[in-house]
Known about the structure:
Blueprint: H1 3-11, H2 13-19, H3 26-39, E1 45-49, H4 55-62, E2 66-71, H5 74-86, E3 93-96, E4 110-115, H6 125-138, E5 139-151, H7 152-162, H8 170-175, E6 180-182, E7 191-194, H9 196-205, E8 209-215, H10 224-233, H11 235-247, H12 252-255, E9 260-266
Helix pairs in contact: 2-5, 3-11, 10-11
Amino acid sequence: MSEAVKDYYNENFEREWKRLDDPYARIEFLSTLYLIKKYFPQVGHIFDIGSGPGRYSIELLKKGYKVSLLELSDKSLMLGKQNINVLGLEADEYICADIRTLDDKRENMYDGILLLGPMYHIQCQQERIEILKKCRKMLKNNGVIVISYLNSWGVIKAGVSDFPEEFEDLNNIYNYFSERKVSVEEGFTESYFTTPPSALREVEESGFSIESYAGAESFISGLSIAMTGHYLENKKVYLNLLKVAAEKCEEPQYRDAAEHLLVIARK
Length: 267
């Protein structure tokens, strides 16, 4: 990851804390928690890699897990520590580092790993595979990892309402049907968009056994305007849709066309 990625998250650390409270982004949060509950062991030590300001770490700590946080952005990590302390919770470690440079002294240490940020930004396939191999070494036997990717097939769907001006160039539409490497000038920061088949191959090549995969936004993908309207006008409809969408995030008819692809794999 370049310094541009670190700078972006240092500049937007407070926004990252609030992002999952957005009426539409809330489904990403709830789907991920649903998968954590379904696939993680009931107890153990979890490594939250790309923890940001600690939204998932807090939920894990509340459930009694031992949690270590690793984050590239020092400001995000500091905010996460502050919020964890305010709640009277205690994490095991706070590590400010790039996962690619983390030492190899953690073999067979964790029962579960969350890898929910780094794969959005690593544009080199070999580096992504090396990260996955490193995570596999850090997991105990039978340990579970949840890996998040940005999915081009879902992003194009969201773009119809969120950034239609980009589609004035016909080639920009076609570009979303394959993997994409996006520069700082083209996107929110330096980023990488994949497709479900490519992501699954990558995880398997790293030695993991794939348990399942999901689309975080489920059948709500691309419907941010409608979901915000329900949130403001009819909370019962909104909450019912969130609940069922999270429960159905692994359904084949939805998971390939959501913005955030979540791969669940086992060592």
